Amino acid sequence: MVDNPASQALAKAPRTFFMTVRDIAFWLRSARADATLGRLQSERGLEQAFDELYATSPDPFGAALPQYRYQRQKYQRMLAMLPGRRYGDVLDIGCGLGVLTRQLAPFGEKILGLDISNTAVTEARERSAGFTNLEFAQDDVMAFDPGRRQFDLVVLADTLYYLAPLSDDRLKTIAGKMHDLLAPGGILLLVNHFFFTVDPASRMTREIHNAFRWSSGLNQVAEHKYAFFLASLLERAPWQPVAAPVVGRTANG
Questions:
Q1: Is residue 247 classed as helix, strand or coil in its secondary structure?
Q2: pLDDT confidence of 1, banded at 50, 70, 90?
Q3: How far is CA 127 from the centre of its chain?
Q4: Over the stretch 127-169, which tens digit does the pLDDT of each residue have?
């Protein structure tokens, strides 16, 4: 694991990070939700599949359920990876019910939660009614156009699986999209399932993170490995000053 390069992290990491017996039910719940989503997607497409999944179950992945320690501590760990500064504009991609979006609220001026499911976005708005600096929007991340708006922090956590197939060209396109969404000097937090390349999903995660690391315009700042997820911090290069042209002297000096 590479330590956070910042002298002070954005937030404190949990003292312990391990699963409880209840968290086994969390994994089973998530696996059932993914299986249902896969079946619905083949019949209706990704957007309608997510809408139907959230309409059928208020929290299909168990992200907001208090009995599951793992997800809460994972989010705390993710926040502790970020360099300790205040972020002006923040984008949480694949926000779902807005659990992580709400945890980002103290650290940003304006935070946008983006999700492909209108059902999830509607629920996220209702659950976030007391937060004045949060907003939510329904859109496909690859079609998302914020205009001139760029973000000081973009969080892309546990989302890319749903954009499969992830060919090299597709990953290059996604990395380019993230680069364009970031303001110069902005940070991308990329998080995916990882169990030390034991399973196919973990091997795909390594390919994803390598593709982002090798992307032009994104510099890897740090990498963090845990038993069940891999996180990479990448930074868009700041603006480089353009040198003034050297004007040559004429024969007359």
A1: coil
A2: very low
A3: 20
A4: 999 999 999 999 999 999 999 999 999 999 999 988 888 888 9
CA 182/CA 235 separation, integer angstroms: 8
Write the DSSP string, 65-89: -TT-HHHHHHHHHHHHHSBSS-EEE
Give the tokens for residue 92.
């949480």
> From CA 142, how far away is CA 106, in angstroms rounded?
27
Question: pTM for the whole thing?
Answer: 0.86
Domains annotated on the chain, with CATH: 83-236 (3.40.50.150)
Provide the 10 A C-beta neighbour count for residue 243: 6
In which order are the strands placed within the sheet that holds 151-157? 134-138, 108-115, 87-93, 151-157, 182-193, 229-236, 218-225
